[in-house]
Amino acid sequence: MKTILTTVGLLLALTAATFAQTTTQPPESTTTGSTTTTQSTERPLIKEETKQEIREKANEVKQDAREAGQELKKEAREAGQEIKQDVNRAGDKVQAVGQEIKEDVKGEVNAIRVRNDRNGLEWFERGSVFVGASVGLGLGRESGSYLAINPRVGYFFQPGFMAGLRTSFDRRLSTSFRSQELGVFARYYPFRTRVSGFVGAGYNFGREFASNIDRDEKARFNSITLEVGTMVRLQRNLGLEASLETNYYDRSNPLAGRNRGGRVRIGVNYYFTRKVVVN
Fold it and tell me: Residue 69 belongs to what domain range?
């Protein structure tokens, strides 16, 4: 910075000197005989050596500035390479951690699959069929309780995954209300052992009957059923299950769902398998 300020000062001085040279000093008179000759004399304010030094200093400043710029570019390029390498290393670490997690999850899934294959029941294999029925008891959204009987039949399309048809006959214990439903349902058994949990869902079409509903009036409704439960193997091809079920009714019929709420169900299922089940 000091060199730059010195050079700037010298350049300003050189400019002033150049401007001064353009102004002539008072002319000197020389008499020769009867003739007088007037001559003008010009004296430079800065010597040529000084000008040369200023030029050399300016060139040195330019060279220093150029070298400094190149050095900054080099440092910036090196810093960019280091940042790029750090980012690549961080990305490799993240990828390695993700691969480890993926391998761990894959190992757990394989362990569950092996455990299911070793201890799993033939009931849940593809091609198996089951028929069953359950009795449910629940509380209506108004006073009183109701009883439900649910026959069903299902088919296993994939290990642990089944779908089928079901019917339901509900009756309010304290009133004349009753209803009938027909629907489809699906279940999934994640752990296919002697004691196994399951989750399921279904869609139903139904009709209601009551003393205050005219016989000619078709009080129809649709509903969605969600359930979660547990199955226990009792003996060869026979299982006992318990589940908690809830229903969501459409709003087109203001009476739909008014007499029903969640229910607890107990049921039995009989399984027809392709392979022989050994006790």
Answer: 1-14+48-119
**Residues 22-77: pLDDT tens digits?**
544 455 555 555 555 555 455 566 677 777 878 878 888 888 888 888 888 888 88
Cα radius of gyration rounded to whole Å, the chain: 50
In a domain, 74, yes or no: yes
At how many degrees (to 10) do helices 48-119 and 2-21 cross? 140
- Residue ending a domain, among 90, 119, 148, is 119
Please name the residues in contact with 265: beta carbons below 8 A apart, sequence gap of 6 or more: 134, 135, 136, 148, 150, 227, 229, 241, 242, 243, 244, 245
Residue 25: the pLDDT is 47
Q: Classify burial at 121, counting beta carbons within 10 Å of its beta carbon; exposed 0-12, middle 13-18, buried 19 or more.
A: buried
End-of-domain residue from the set 81, 102, 119:
119
